[in-house]
Amino acid sequence: MYANTVAVVTGASRGLGRALAGQLLAGGATVITLARGSSPELAEAADRHGARLQQLTADLSDASSIETAAGLISAALPAGAARYLLINNAGTLDPVSLAEGLFDAQAIQRAFNVNVSAAMVLTAAFLRSAPKEADLRIVNISSGAGRRTNAGWAVYCATKAALDLYTRVLAEENPGLRVASLAPGVVDTDMQAHIRSSDRAQFPDLDRFIQLHEQGQLASPESTASRILHHVISDRFGHEILDDIRNYDSPTQP
Ligand SMILES: NC(=O)c1ccc[n+]([C@@H]2O[C@H](COP(=O)([O-])OP(=O)(O)OC[C@H]3O[C@@H](n4cnc5c(N)ncnc54)[C@H](OP(=O)(O)O)[C@@H]3O)[C@@H](O)[C@H]2O)c1
Q1: Is 204 within the bounds of a domain?
Q2: What is the pLDDT of residues 59-112, one digit of tens each?
Q3: In angstroms, what is the span from residue 248 Cα to ligand 1's centroid?
Q4: Cβ(162) to ligand 1 under 6 A?
Q5: How confident is the model at residue 249 (pLDDT cuts 50, 70, 90)?
Q6: What per-residue confidence (pLDDT) applies to 251?
Q7: Angle at CA of residue 228, ends 121 and 92, nearest 5°
Q8: Closest atom, ligand 1, to C-alpha of 113
Q9: Which domain holds residue 235?
C-alpha cells in the first residue's frame, strides 16, 4: 500500500508515531524517523518486512538540534520515489500549569520548539529536498486542544493553535501541496498516562481524562495510525486544512 513511498515520521520512538512508522514499514515504505530515542520494535518490523528504515536521533526541544536534524533529513531523503510524506508528530504536553504559574520561559520555549519550530524547520528542509515532481504530502499532528481551551494547558493549547495557523499559511503559500493539521482524537499513549498523572491543582479537568481511560474510550495508537494513513493517501487529503481524523470512517468499518 505504501510502496514507492518515502515517509519521514517525527516522534516515532513510541506512541502514535511508532504505530504510524510501523504501518508504513509493513506497507513497504522507506521510513526515516526522528526522536530522542529509537525503537527496537521498528527495527524489527523493518527486518520482518524487508523495508528500509533509518532512525535518526535528535532533541527537538533544542533549536540547534532541530537545524542539525533538518540537515540530516535532507541528506537522508532518497531520490526517485513517487510519494513523499512528512508527518510532524513529535509533541510534548509540558509544562502543565495554570497561567499564573508559567514563570519558566525556557520550559515554554522547549515546548514551542518541539511542537511548532521543529515542524516549521523540518517542513522547509522537506520542501527543499524532496523532488518537486513527486506527490508531496505533509501532516502536522495537532490536537483538539489547539481549537478549544483547557485550563492548565496554556502552553500546549498555544503551541497546537500555532501549528494550526502555521499549516494554513503553508497551504496558502503552496496551493499545489497537500497539507493538513490533523487532530488524532484521544489515543492511549504515554502522553495520556502523563495527563492522568497531572497535579489536579494545575489541571482541573483531570477527572475527565481518568474517566475516559476507565471507560475504555481511548483509541489505540494502531487504529488511529491506520485511520490517519488511509486518509493521508486518499484524494480528499488536504481539502480541509484544519482537520480531525474523527471526521472520517475507520478503514476497517464497512
Ligand atoms: N495521545 C493523545 O491522546 C493525543 C491527543 C491529541 C494530540 N496528540 C498529539 O499526537 C502526537 C503524538 O503523541 P503521543 O500521544 O504519541 O505522545 P507520546 O506517547 O508522549 O510520544 C511522543 C513522541 O514525541 C517524541 N518527542 C517528545 N519530545 C521530544 C523531543 N524533545 N525531541 C524529539 N522527540 C520528542 C517522543 O520521543 P522521545 O521521547 O524518544 O524523544 C515520542 O516519540 C503529539 O503531537 C501529540 O500532541 C496526542
Answers
A1: no
A2: 999 999 999 999 999 999 999 999 999 999 999 999 999 999 999 999 999 999
A3: 22
A4: no
A5: confident
A6: 75
A7: 45
A8: 31
A9: 5-186+220-247
Ligand 1: nearest atom to the Cα of 194: 20
The whole-number pLDDT of residue 253 equals: 45
Is residue 195 included in any domain, yes or no?
no
Catalytic residue among 84, 156, 166, 248: 156
User: What's the chain's length in residues?
Assistant: 254
Residue 84 annotated among the catalytic residues of the structure? no
Tell me if 252 is assigned to some domain: no
Cell numbers standing for residue 97:
500549569
Cα 254 to ligand 1 centre (Å): 31
CATH at 102: 3.40.50.720
Other C-beta atoms within 10 Å of 71: how many? Answer: 13
Rounded to a whole number of angstroms, the CA Rg of the chain reads 17
Domain count within the chain = 1
CA distance 114 to 155: 12
**Residue 214 counted as domain residue:** no
